[in-house]
Amino acid sequence: MRKFALTAIAAAFALTAFANTSSKAAEGVVPPAMEWSWQGLFGTYDRAQLQRGFQVFKTVCATCHSMRYLAFRNLEGIGFNEDQIKAIAAEYEVQDGPNDDGEMFTRTAKPSDHFPHPFANDKAAAAANGGATPPDLSLMAKARPHGPDYIHALLTGYEEEAPAGVEMADGKYYNHYFPSHQISMPPPLYGNDVEYTDGTEATVDQEVLDVTAFLNWIAEPELEARKAMGMKVLLFLIVLTAMLYAVKRKIWAKIEH
Amino acid sequence: MSAPVWNNKVVKWVDDRLPVFSMLHHSAYEYPTPKNLSYMWNFGSLAGLVLVTMILTGIFLVMNYTPHADMAFDSVERIMRDVNYGWLIRYLHMNGASMFFIAVYIHIFRGLYYGSYKAPREVLWWIGILILLAMMATAFMGYVLPWGQMSFWGATVITNLFSAFPVIGDPLVTWLWGGFSVGNPTLNRFFSLHYLLPFVILGLVVLHVWALHTVRSNNPTGVEIKTPQDSIPFHPYYTIKDLFGMGVFLIIYLYFVFFAPNFFGEPDNYIMANPLSTPAHIVPEWYFLPFYAILRSIDFEFLGMPAKLLGVLAMFAAIIVLFVIPWLDTSKVRSSRFRPVYKWFFVVLIIDCFVLGYCGAKAPSDPFMGLHGLQVITVGQLATLYYFLHFLVVMPVVGKMERPKPLPASISESVLKGGANA
């Protein structure tokens, strides 16, 4: 048993070190680690923060970025009720069709519709943004090393002047945390870009924290259900395994081994 | 070991016509097992547990997955978001792959340390290596299915390796792809094979267990079962021990599933595959990193063969060499517990494999462990050299020169001396 535990600990340790080196193979500047409400074994999202983040997203980010995996009905997950979701959807128009005359038409969005894309296609998006397509944001918090920490660092990592000796390409902005440091996205948030419905003061820092939380939620909407189930499963397994160990001791008691 | 007498009439009726109950009784109940097996002998049953988990979760994933280059990524996200407990099934499957390799690698190194490949267990060992090869093919093709950036570019890099073979190389790669680059036909065939190969693995596992039950389990002393006192029936002793091991294993496995589901993954695979944009670093999954390091460590020509071909040959040789170690190992003693010199070479081999893994994860020109003036490629080359030296030189030479410690007369004697925890 002692040997087993030692082996297990050694294996876990080696693996952790190993997997860490591999996942950090492709990164630039390491973003500062932030405290997020959803971290840890008992982490949960803060609904008010997610709603504020959604407000920042739809007012600022959504003018250029798509969110292909967000349907209006999903907003239930950040605490909106059915009527609120209907009202939010009704602010948007989506294309539907063809109708019986074979024509495409636009209509008011329903909760089952997906959040409309700001551009007709990637080419149109690139043409409107100096040649760079704004990436879809649905999975951003999972698709970059350090996920939310990176998003937070990127949004606050703009510098007005590039360091001496750095030749900036046309239409690029210097960002300390972007891998090449030259990013096509202009600084998106200046403070008071939205008027928060819950009265929170819309400082840049507040907006960045809120929108990062929202982006993490849309990347991992299952997180709360996952952690809650995980707690129950692990507790069950720990008790079961302890009992199995007791039975094993009992059965083996008669055996010289 | 007499045939059991069945009291239940239905059981007896079936058993007289097809002896399934007798067979189960024979192989899962009375199978005589050495009484001194350590917890290192738990990993075979753990690998079996993961195999079943992978097949079951895989079957449910397929019900919701679309193997098309334009829809695969979206269908995986649909599983994560809209399918009931889809996230659970997918995370079980994703992390199960890593857990499968952890269990199997420990299982293999246990076999190496205790000489489980030596006569009469050579065929058992061979089937094990075939299982490893089938697992690697399955894992590689499975990783392509979500059609993320790493899926696409990993598939491109690995399939391109076959172009290293002279004359047939390029046509072979085109044939593998079903086109002139990795694309929808590639995804379709990989999906088909990814569904087929697990059942091949299952068949090989049946053969593996059959061979095991013919030659019997090895044990930490490496001394065969000689008298009935040396063994105990498999049930209840090892069924309960395996169950306990499964409990511990599941705690670790499910911790990752529920609390760090993307720990073993690459963030880039949450970006949809884009043939026009190559990721900065293409890294395979962690369980391939040592082999990837061996592949990349050959950066020179030799005997007119280009470096790429040599690298590919070296990578395959790293596994092929395992087939012949029953004859490369010249020691008369199975267990390294009684091999004072070889034991240390074994420790070096384990460290070597971790070093190879580290090198596989880094760019060749990176400094090794942050040491300036020492490049990853150089360390990778030395580690590759030791890997092959270990099997081709150390095993035959040390086996002949080393003076092993005296072996216990039997398993029972070793147990009575308290040898089980030595």
TrEMBL record, chain A:
GO cellular component, one term: membrane
Entry's transmembrane regions: 229-247
Signal peptide segment: 1-19
Entry's Gene Ontology molecular function annotations: electron transfer activity; heme binding; metal ion binding
UniProt keyword terms in alphabetical order: Electron transport, Heme, Iron, Membrane, Metal-binding, Respiratory chain, Signal, Transmembrane, Transmembrane helix, Transport
Main location: membrane
Protein name: Cytochrome c1
Organism the protein comes from: Thalassospira profundimaris
Lineage: Bacteria, Pseudomonadati, Pseudomonadota, Alphaproteobacteria, Rhodospirillales
From TrEMBL, chain B:
GO terms for MF: metal ion binding; oxidoreductase activity; quinol-cytochrome-c reductase activity
Keywords noted in UniProt: Electron transport, Heme, Iron, Membrane, Metal-binding, Respiratory chain, Transmembrane, Transmembrane helix, Transport
Cofactor binding note: Binds 2 heme groups non-covalently.
Binding site for heme b b566: H107, H208
Protein localization: Membrane
Entry GO terms, CC: respiratory chain complex III
InterPro entries per the UniProt record, alphabetical: Cyt_b/b6_C, Cyt_b/b6_C_sf, Cyt_b/b6_N, Cytb/b6-like_sf, Cytochrome_b, Cytochrome_b_C_euk/bac, Cytochrome_b_N_euk/bac, Di-haem_cyt_TM
Cytochrome b/b6 C-terminal region profile domain residues: 224-409
Cofactor(s) recorded in Swiss-Prot or TrEMBL: heme b; heme
Record's keyword annotation contains DNA-binding: no
Every Cytochrome b/b6 N-terminal region profile domain range: 10-221
UniProt: a ubiquinone binding residues: H213
Source organism superkingdom: Bacteria
Chief localisation class: membrane
One of the protein's GO biological processes: respiratory electron transport chain
Family: Belongs to the cytochrome b family.
Function description: Component of the ubiquinol-cytochrome c reductase complex (complex III or cytochrome b-c1 complex), which is a respiratory chain that generates an electrochemical potential coupled to ATP synthesis.
Cited PANTHER family: CYTOCHROME B
The name this protein goes by in its record: Cytochrome b
Organism, scientific name: Thalassospira profundimaris
